[in-house]
Amino acid sequence: xxxxxxxxxxxxxxxxxxxxxxxxxxxxxxxxxxxxxxxxxxxxxxxxxxxxxxxxxxxxxxxxxxxxxxxxxxxxxxxxxxxxxxxxxxxxxxxxxxxxxxxxxxxxxxxxxxxxxxxxxxxxxxxxxxxxxxxxxxxxxxxxxxxxxxxxxxxxxxxxxxxxxxxxxxxxxxxxxxxxxxxxx
Length: 185
Prior knowledge:
Blueprint: H1 7-108, E1 113-121, E2 124-131, H2 134-146, E3 150-160, E4 169-177, H3 179-184
Antiparallel strand pairs: 1-2, 2-4, 3-4
């Protein structure tokens, strides 16, 4: 038995194992390559989906920017309209001012006071007239202060007149329309 040569059998076994290793190596390489291709395909699909989402977001963002621009334009138009409405309202209230003034003037002017002129400049009213006595002018000042919409009555001048048959005092008076009613006018 000492003459048995096991070398060719071992070489054949080794060649078979090497062949089997190469087959396994080739199979593992193919499986790895297939897995890499599948993962690569999956990653490209995910990238494509994300790009589609990004495109949708960009489209919606552009659409919303247009809507915001329209809203800004509408707000500007609204502000302009509000200004016009306030101006028209102030004109409407101002139109009623002279009617209100001339309706309440007989209540403000006591008997014995006669007005020669009434001048209105913005929120200031200048009255020139004649009175039988100084107390009647003082009574008119109290009535103006109590009216609620007229304020700050001041006598600019008052002096006795030498005119006959009845001696009347001439006076000049200024008063203002209160800011709260001027804004409402």
